[in-house]
Amino acid sequence: MTTLLGIDLRGRPVLVTGGGPVAARRVTAMVRAGALVRVVSPWMCEDILDLHAEHPDAVQLHHREVAESDVDDVWLVHGATGDPATNLQLAGWATERRVFCTNGGAADRGTARTPAVTRSGEVVIGVVSGGDTAGSSHADPRRATVLRDRIADLLAEGELDLRRHRPGAGRVVLVGGGPGAEDLMTVRGRRALAEADVVVTDRLGPSSLVQRLRPGVEVIDVGKAPDHHPVPQQRINEILVEHARRGRVVVRLKGGDPFVFGRGGEEVIACREAGVEVSVVPGISSALAAPALAGIPITQRGLSTSFHVTTGHGGLDPAATAVVGLPGSVLVVLMGVSALGLIAEQAAAAGAPADTPIAVVENGSTPQQRIVRGTLGTIRAIARQRAIAAPAVIVIGAVAAPDVLGPSPETAAG
């Protein structure tokens, strides 16, 4: 249930007087809360007109001065006319009818105050300034806004505990943790972690965030390594469903993006078939992040007009070999370190010249990030010499050459 001022306004009429930007913000909030908004003002800004066009059934416009009768049948009044005398008169009319009224020009002269609001999932947090006594003269909306913004920062950083303390329906959230660095995880993903009762995690997720989870959060490690899958995918699906059915909020934390070779689609299907609510928080895929952090633009005017992303467990699949030799194409290979030599051979056999640049980015975004470069003809020997290891992203194409973006301080070139 969405609320405003702690009041359920769904389907209930409210009055907003004034047609400027402040009034537009209040109308927006009230529409989100499900209210039926009546706007009365001789003139109205484009934002209000747009809101009416977008929500014609929820926003009614009256191009005139406000009248006392406008207050007769509403549940809440907001005065934002810009004229203190009119706002005060409006508050008086509302008080006579026992209708709460906010005064946009003088918060302490109304019977209600509009909070500075921030949201995080199911939680709505409002900050109101002005003390706890009626008629307080210490209302300071700017202070409330500053405090609201600081709380929003803490929510975004995942620093506040948002777990439920009352029983509720369980659900699963698939969260993309990004390439590894915790500050490359999305705000929505951090907030999902703050709400989690259970975190089912992979080895490639942002481990530092998992280590800082609050006491009482159950962590289940189902991480997979090359040729070693201690927890099969079917069992992972069962774990998600089992905990959600116990009424828990379950976060399935993955490296990269859940739908980019993360088997997230299988987990969504398993939850839906079991009747469990499931949602997805996208993450930054290492296929894009690792090259970018290594200074490799996978599209670049004059060099690359398209890219193809694939996995390389057993070498290149037919779709990858079909594009790797094409001019202007770039091939990005995930999970292909163990087959790097084979991949280079297959790319050459598909028509890519032996001097085609290839770069391997290990542990992208982490302090252990390393970039190793070579060509299709040399990368096998370089990989052996430099002991290239997973996790790593392989980039094949002209953009993988050194100094594509100009001189670089990189010292790990092959």
Automatic annotation (TrEMBL):
CDD domains: SUMT. The active site is at D202 (proton acceptor), K224 (proton donor). The keyword Methyltransferase applies. Residues 171-379 form the Tetrapyrrole methylase domain. Keywords: Methyltransferase, Porphyrin biosynthesis, S-adenosyl-L-methionine, Transferase. SUPFAM superfamilies: NAD(P)-binding Rossmann-fold domains, Tetrapyrrole methylase. The keyword Metal-binding does not apply. One of its GO terms (biological process) is methylation. Its EC number is 2.1.1.107. GO terms for molecular function: NAD binding; precorrin-2 dehydrogenase activity; sirohydrochlorin ferrochelatase activity; uroporphyrin-III C-methyltransferase activity. PANTHER family: S-ADENOSYL-L-METHIONINE-DEPENDENT UROPORPHYRINOGEN III METHYLTRANSFERASE, CHLOROPLASTIC, SIROHEME SYNTHASE-RELATED. This is uroporphyrinogen-III C-methyltransferase. It comes from Nakamurella sp. A5-74.
